[in-house]
Specification:
By secondary structure, this protein is of the alpha/beta class. The protein has a single domain, classed as Rossmann fold (3-Layer(aba) Sandwich). The protein contains 4 helices and 7 strands. It has a 7-stranded mixed beta sheet, covered by helices on one side. Helix 1 packs across helix 2.
Length: 144
């Protein structure tokens, strides 16, 4: 497990960017953490690392955004509003997770039973935590 500490959104973005540069076809990244910890900032950096040129926003109301301008397709899920993990099948979950693109899933803990089906060699878990005692912008990123 790797652990990073950041003290600004820009630092969180840069860690995402470095992981995006290293991403390989078929990888799935799960993002967990409380509301407002920087999951979308991390995702924007990740997309930048992949070379995505479109504006990357949280797809909260659409569940899935697809970005194809980078060196690999990026399938960005935000499952915050999913009521039942089975709803993921309605958006074609399997087609994206088992593709040669890269999946990044915000709020992945809400569909944990589905992510448990992903082989460990294809899965990278990213947990972002904040600690207000260490500063408003402080974040700890745990990557495994």
């Amino acid at each position: 497990m790797k652990e990073y500490e950041t003290y600004s959104p820009g630092e969180t973005y840069r860690i995402g960017c470095e992981l995006g540069k290293e991403a390989k076809p078929g990888q799935v990244y799960t993002l967990t953490g409380d509301l407002g910890v920087g999951k979308t900032v991390f995702t924007q950096g990740f997309a930048d690392g992949l070379g995505v040129r479109e504006q990357v926003n949280s797809p909260t109301f659409t569940i899935l955004q697809i970005y194809e301008s980078g060196r690999l397709p990026l399938y960005h899920f935000d499952v915050y509003r999913i009521g039942d993990p089975e709803e993921m099948y309605e958006v074609g979950w399997e087609d994206y997770v088992w593709s040669d693109g890269v999946c990044l899933i915000e709020w992945a803990d809400l569909i944990g039973e589905l992510t448990e089906e992903i082989p460990p060699e294809r899965l990278t878990e990213v947990r972002i935590e904040k600690d207000s005692a260490r500063g408003f912008d402080y974040r700890k990123l745990l990557i495994r």
